[in-house]
Amino acid sequence: MPKYYEDKEEDGRACSGVREDLRQCLLESPCVLRENKSPKQCLREGHCMSLQVTFFACKRSMLDTRARFRGRKGY
């Protein structure tokens, strides 16, 4: 689910919205909060998988030459 931030300054990097949501999802997951694991370990265990797939598709679309016509995936 995309989260929109009104008071936050705009990040110029590609896929920044998906990146921020994936980061927040990992930091708020029970894996990090209760089990005190690192976000990297939780990502490997499969937490926030839908956002991880969306972030991968967004980064992959940057390399796709057809993206010039279709636009980048993600938000």
Automatic annotation (TrEMBL):
BP GO terms, sorted: mitochondrial respiratory chain complex IV assembly
Cellular-component GO terms for this entry: mitochondrion
Pfam families in the record: Pet191_N
Lineage top rank: taxon: Eukaryota
Annotated keywords: Disulfide bond
Function of the protein: Involved in an early step of the mitochondrial complex IV assembly process.
Family: Belongs to the PET191 family.
Protein name from the UniProt record: Cytochrome c oxidase assembly factor 5
Source species taxonomy: Eukaryota, Metazoa, Chordata, Craniata, Vertebrata
